[in-house]
Design brief:
Number of helices: 13
Radius of gyration: 19 Å
Helix content: 40-55%
Number of strands: 11
Strand content: 15-25%
Strand order of the largest sheet: 7-6-5-4-3-2-1-8-9-10-11
CATH architecture: Alpha-Beta Barrel
Number of domains: 1
Largest sheet: 11 strands, mixed
Shape: globular
Length: 346
């Protein structure tokens, strides 16, 4: 009998509904209803039963539309004593003083989606009612800053904003409570199929400019901001992470749960029956989970044979999917950060 998969990355899509209509959203066609509390708790128990540490991330749509579910799950984790690292990925537009205080009290790590300075961000991230997405997001970030809640910024990179990418570094220092920046290169799912990935050479140049600007601003302000991709390389070099360590789906360790209780191998693969692993009522099917992981591993063969793998740690299957075997812009980003880490200049 095959043992149940050990879940190390549990993502709860609390609702497919969002008050934004971002041009690239890969979750735009996920189930819109709010996840019932019972479904969320069953999913949490599914991950917690192994007794192993796991990441628990709230996402959507916009997860703050289902804040009571966040509260219920957070308090359930505490009551059960699960070793969970709780994270929230949000556009921050629905942030309030009370929510910010709750996140701080319960030590929930906060990631906010922002794609550059306001004109650039508003060109990609739009509110459904036509108002400025930047204005609402910045207001939410300021509420978090007032409560001394540190955040990370997640910046989606397309051909539309890559040449203005240093603006996200400027915004990070302007906001004051940003401690990490992660670049999420375009995934061609959902609405993202209508957009174009950034050119590899543009990505390499933009990443180098961002790092150089962060170094300058750190000297001026004393504030050190991490880059997620560079930190991954540091962990690999120090032996704290392995190649493809970020791809929990490849190892059969990720459960992305949609609001209707279905479990998929990855957030970007939700709705694809080939990567449907089960449901919260019956659990993850061990054989389907294994086969999905093997499929992803085989699809990344070119990456595994790359001489840079030992430094960069590997690419993302969902970016490579349908791209003739490789997402060149991701390789360019990883290799640029690898050169920065190795002190080779860029």
């Amino acid at each position: 009998m095959t043992a149940d998969p050990v879940i190390r990355n549990l993502i709860l899509s609390l609702t497919g509904t969002c008050n934004y209509a971002c041009a690239y959203c890969y979750a735009a066609y996920h189930p819109e209803e709010r996840m019932p509390v019972d479904t969320a708790l069953k999913a949490t128990d599914m991950a917690g039963k192994s007794g192993q540490p796991f990441i628990l991330q709230f996402t959507g749509g916009e997860p703050l539309l289902a804040f009571p579910v966040i509260q219920a799950v957070t308090e359930h984790v505490a009551a059960k004593g699960y070793p969970a690292i709780i994270q929230l990925q949000t556009n921050a537009s629905l942030m309030t003083d009370a929510i910010a205080e709750y996140l701080k009290h319960h030590k929930i790590a906060v990631g906010v989606s922002l794609d550059g300075r306001p004109p650039v961000n508003d060109s990609l991230r739009k509110m459904k009612n036509g108002n400025s997405a930047s204005e609402a997001t910045i207001r939410g970030i300021r509420l978090l800053a007032a409560k001394k809640v540190p955040i990370g910024l997640t910046c989606v990179v397309t051909d539309a904003n890559v040449k203005a990418l240093p603006g996200i570094v400027q915004m990070a220092y302007y906001l004051g409570n940003v401690r990490q920046i992660g670049f999420d290169l375009l995934r061609c799912q959902g609405r993202g199929t209508a957009l174009h990935p950034a050119a590899p050479q543009d990505v390499a140049m933009a990443v180098a400019q961002c790092y150089a600007l962060a170094q300058q601003l750190e000297k001026a302000t004393g504030i050190h901001i991490l880059f997620s991709q560079l930190e991954k390389i540091r962990k690999i070099a120090s032996g704290k992470a392995c190649s493809f360590g970020q791809c929990y789906a490849m190892h059969g360790e990720e459960a992305y749960v949609t609001s209707d209780g279905k479990i998929y191998a990855c957030s970007s693969l939700a709705g694809d029956p080939a990567f449907l692993l089960g449901n919260v009522q019956d659990g993850m099917d061990p054989e389907r989970t294994k086969q999905a992981g093997l499929f992803i591993a085989e699809a990344m063969r070119a990456c595994k044979e790359c001489p840079h793998l030992s430094v960069c740690g590997g690419g993302c299957f969902t970016r490579w999917q349908g791209r003739n075997g490789k997402a060149e812009e991701e390789c360019a980003m990883q290799q640029t950060f690898a050169k920065i880490y190795l002190g080779q200049g860029v």
